[in-house]
């Protein structure tokens, strides 16, 4: 309990910082406009005592469990066309075909202590990571590190900090399944995962630190460029060479809107990173998913990158992150267990449609109920 007093003193400031932190965004693909097949009609959604109008295509109804639309009825062309992998996933979720499994809820006292633990964790994590980044920058300036060495060592070190602190201050319990599927090869790998909250990056850093995933090829993430306005986080992403992408700060009912010049620069940086000995991690939903564990629309940038470099794709499914930190409640620590499944590498995915199918078929059941589907 020695951590409790400093935590109570730091909690107000840390709480404000955590709530203000922007989400990571990781999709190298500009969102397409809504299909012309759909007539647009107005529906409403309720938020905090008010009703907000939003545009939903005709022939689409809202998922009972989520705010995401599901195609139903519509024009003759809609009925004849084959539904996308995302639409099939949403229909299955609405029909209850994907069961939901959740860890036990924490009681009020345990929840309060867990949140205090979390604030202490973040205070130490950001402090230690920031000090390391400053040291790495100094060593780079005097010629001890090259730029690539600085980036690789920083990613490994911050991953080790994330993992070590979690064993001391376990504000969530991290289970990792499929560890044998992590093989340390010389060639590049494109990592793909679902995107739930700001906690995602910390979970992946902790995995990297615990399993030494980046011993040969450290993993670079894509992130929303707005993260650069937060000094400590900005220092980390720049020192480690993470890759920014510019995206409009739109509401969740509007599809992701990426800036074309930023997408081109991002693709150039990703190509260079793979050639320089890094792996790339992409969250193809592009932004935090307010409807987790139901998955959002996945963009095909990861598939295109893997195809260009003849690299396998390694899917990672996360389960339970939304019960620790989510879009609606922020860092609420309602439950503690976070389970991650690392699926076997998949070589030679032949199309965007196959990429989307595997994303939903593998990660969807795991995100909802920790169901490990055998890939076919």
UniProtKB/TrEMBL annotation:
Lineage top rank: taxon: Eukaryota
Gene Ontology annotations of biological process type: phosphatidic acid biosynthetic process
Phospholipid/glycerol acyltransferase domain ranges (all copies): 189-321
Keywords, alphabetical: Acyltransferase, Lipid biosynthesis, Lipid metabolism, Signal, Transferase
An example molecular function term from Gene Ontology annotations: 1-acylglycerol-3-phosphate O-acyltransferase activity
Listed Pfam families: Acyltransferase
Signal peptide range in chain numbering: 1-20
Transmembrane segments: none
Keyword Ligase annotated: no
Pathway as given in its UniProt record: Lipid metabolism
InterPro entries the record matches: Plipid/glycerol_acylTrfase (IPR002123)
Name under which the protein is recorded: Phospholipid/glycerol acyltransferase domain-containing protein
Organism, as annotated: Lotharella globosa
Organism lineage string: Eukaryota, Sar, Rhizaria, Cercozoa, Chlorarachniophyceae
């Amino acid at each position: 309990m020695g951590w409790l007093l400093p935590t109570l003193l730091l909690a107000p400031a840390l709480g404000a910082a955590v709530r203000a932190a922007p989400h990571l965004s990781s999709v190298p693909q500009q969102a397409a406009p809504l299909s012309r097949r759909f007539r647009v009609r107005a529906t409403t959604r309720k938020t905090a005592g008010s009703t907000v109008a939003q545009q939903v295509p005709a022939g689409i109804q809202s998922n009972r469990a989520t705010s995401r639309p599901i195609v139903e009825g519509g024009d003759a062309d809609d009925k004849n066309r084959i539904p996308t992998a995302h639409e099939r996933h949403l229909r299955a979720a609405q029909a209850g075909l994907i069961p939901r499994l959740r860890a036990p809820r924490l009681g009020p006292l345990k929840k309060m202590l867990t949140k205090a633990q979390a604030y202490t964790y973040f205070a130490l994590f950001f402090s230690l990571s920031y000090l390391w980044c400053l040291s790495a920058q100094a060593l780079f300036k005097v010629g001890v590190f090259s730029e690539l060495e600085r980036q690789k060592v920083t990613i490994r070190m911050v991953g080790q900090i994330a993992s070590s602190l979690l064993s001391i201050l376990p504000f969530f319990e991290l289970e990792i399944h499929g560890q044998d599927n992590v093989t340390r090869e010389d060639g590049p790998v494109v990592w793909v995962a679902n995107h739930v909250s700001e906690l995602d990056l910390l979970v992946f850093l902790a995995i990297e630190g615990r399993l030494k995933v980046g011993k040969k090829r450290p993993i670079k993430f894509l992130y929303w460029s707005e993260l650069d306005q937060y000094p400590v986080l900005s220092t980390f992403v720049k020192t480690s060479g993470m890759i920014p992408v510019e995206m409009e700060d739109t509401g969740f009912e509007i599809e992701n809107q990426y800036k074309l010049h930023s997408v081109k620069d991002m693709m150039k940086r990703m190509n260079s990173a793979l050639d320089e000995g890094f792996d790339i991690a992409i969250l193809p939903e592009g932004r935090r998913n307010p409807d987790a564990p139901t998955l959002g629309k996945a963009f095909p940038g990861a598939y295109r990158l893997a195809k260009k470099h003849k690299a396998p794709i390694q899917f990672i499914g996360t389960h339970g992150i939304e019960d620790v930190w989510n879009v609606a409640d922020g860092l609420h620590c309602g439950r503690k267990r976070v389970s991650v499944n690392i699926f076997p590498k998949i070589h030679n995915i032949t199309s965007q449609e196959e990429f989307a199918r595997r994303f939903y078929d593998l990660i969807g059941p795991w995100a909802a109920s920790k169901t490990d589907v055998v890939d076919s």
